[in-house]
Write the structure tokens for this entry.
Amino acid sequence: MFERDLVGVGLGPANLGLAIALEEAGIPARAQFLDRRPGFDWHPEMLLPSSVMQISYLKDLATQRDPRSAYTFVNYLHERGRMSDFINRKSFFPSRLEFTDYLRWAVERLQVPVCWGAEVVSVDLDEHTGGCVVSWDLDGTRHTTTTRYVAIGAGSTPRMPDWAAALPGVLHNTGLIGGLRSAGLGRGARVAVVGQGQSAAESVRHVLDTYPGVSVDCFMSGYGMTPADSSPFANRVFDPSAVDDFYFADANVRAELLDRHRATNYSCVDPDLLTWLYDFEYQEKVAGGDRLRFHRAARVTGARASGGRVTLDVLRRMTGSTARETYDAVVCATGFTSPLPRRLLGGSFGDTSGVWLARDYRLHRADGSALPVFVLGSTESGHGLGSGLLSNIAVRGGEIAERVIASARATVSTPAARRELAVSR
């Protein structure tokens, strides 16, 4: 009936966790993952030498689903021969470089088939089977397959301010390394960083560490950077069990709690990095330098590019005064958006303006009818702060895998399916 039980769109960490759960489920669930990239990477432009993960290594691709899995971070350390070395660090937090290497290691040992360089064109409903038809382009050829379910894990989209649209010299922090390299920064150059969260702080440090003699101005809408709330009680908002708590709560209570606990993940900075930045600024004052300046309660309201440089219009919110500053590069550490992936849903889905996600991450129409599509993003408002983050990857992958496998087993158990399977053998 179906060529596949599940087709995954994208193979970032979210769908990678699902692929591993399917592989380890104990029956040969027929799955395939399609990704438009030539091979695996994970925010390669933000792989900074000083960047450290803000979650425990135990929140990997598998441990919270099954600590006996071959895909745990601990097993990765064992196979890489670094177990004792990591233990001696006395830290829960690997570097981002190491965690990316772990993800790549998992991809390399994955048994579920992955097709790289595959650009998914559309996902359409198959009225005959109740599943989906997935269409994708590979090397100039159009391919299609039928599948019981689709899992869309295409990732988030960088958010850019309106004033930054298509301006040369202005980049999102996801293009940090290459963008700064292309700017040709020499001694005396100036870089602006817009934002006040972890990515902004990491971008500021990267410029200061990598480009001697280059100064950085950081524009913050608040009065100063604030530390991430990593206290153990607050961190329970990222527990897998919190997904049920949030999803079944009253909508007003859920919204209030999401706002109350935003400081665990948004517009906040790791305390050690805050200390580094403050010490750097202080030592510059001692030495009479000015490589780092923080513009408090400041909002960039406009920008223009000319002669290879960018001029920003800045509103000083405390006084209402305005100023213009010119830079050799501008980095927007302004976050991401994770809209429902309506662009992938073909015309057979009809009006998708009212679709919503159920607790099991399955897409539903406005009338409540279920669609054969799982979405591994756009879940925060309904499922809580941790639902779309690394913290929940292992458990969510297991939940979706269980649903896929249960449907496959139910189909195979019917007399017609058994006759079809016997003929195919």
Observations:
- Residues 415-425 have pLDDT under 50 and may be disordered.
